[in-house]
Amino acid sequence: MHVRESALRHVHVIGLFSHRMPELPDVTVYMEHLDRLVRGEILRKVRLASPFVVRSVQPPIQNVEGRRLLEVTRLGKRLVFSFEENLFLVLHLMIAGRLKWKAPGAPIPRKLGLLALDFDAGTVLLTEASPKKRAWLRLVAGEDALIALDPGGLEPLGATREVFSARLRSENHTLKRALTDPTLFSGIGNAYSDEILHAAKLSPVALTSRLSDAEVARLHDATKKTLLDWTERLRLDAGEKFPEKVTAFRPEMAVHGKHGNPCPACATPVQRIVYADNETNYCPACQTGGKLLADRSLSRLLHGDWPKSLEEMEERKSSRRMPAVRPTGEPRSSRTRARPSRAPR
Length: 345
Ligand SMILES: [Zn+2]
Prior knowledge:
Layout: H1 2-17, H2 24-38, E1 43-48, E2 69-75, E3 78-83, E4 87-92, E5 97-102, E6 113-119, E7 123-128, E8 136-141, H3 143-147, H4 161-168, H5 175-180, H6 190-200, H7 213-238, E9 271-275, E10 278-282, H8 284-287, H9 296-304, H10 310-314, E11 335-336
Antiparallel strand pairs: 1-6, 2-3, 2-11, 3-4, 4-8, 5-7, 6-7, 9-10
């Protein structure tokens, strides 16, 4: 009986989380490998299996063909391929978008394949394992057009305690919503927000306006530590190979996707709150003073603190947009390019 229950739980977990949105650690590892593989190469051809994946009209997508790639960076959860002539290809994987690195000219897989970027060194394939095609690519010309695609979230790893605290308290939301809102913080989604809140021992439905300074400090530390630890773990897992399993369900996570499993810190069964198309996982002993938050009113609270759809959330634009700064300049909050910790090829 016990075995069967845990087997069922396993099926449930894999079913729900096989499509986990790539977040800061996942996108960082993609970025590092792409930069290593294609920086300095000429983009020979953009092949589209579906024209709908391209969400920009001008300039035409073919304008980037024949241009040299200068670097691959990150804008929140989006990947940015910067080309000569100030052209930028911006790619958002959304939930089920994944990248593969194949031999030059590799065919685009039927059904799941969306597009191919052909370089002499190899081909970058974009697939999306979902009937709902949400991943998108945009070509923009000029840095102002690139900056306009920045949702404006604070890059959490570069933020001081004061800046982090001011941003967190700038709007009153549940912690779960505040961490995952791309206009508030950059690169954090459903999975790592669960892990961050568990590490900080804070409730997902605590309101940002009610947090003490000590709690904000704990959240800031947990945010940095969780994102850095996971980035390093994913780097080590991929090693020298292009990361193919970067967003797979991770059994090492403490609470995310672990509903019903024992909390690694205290062995209390992990709980969940289901809201909208989503759920948040937490440990009642570590995070909510033993209270179960699974009742309807809390689901409603979380649900009500959310835009209607994932697309709406991801496409939110900040109303506090900062003055345009060159994206390579330091003050840009959410455009970073961390160098791989190991030596390049
Ligand atoms: Zn616990």
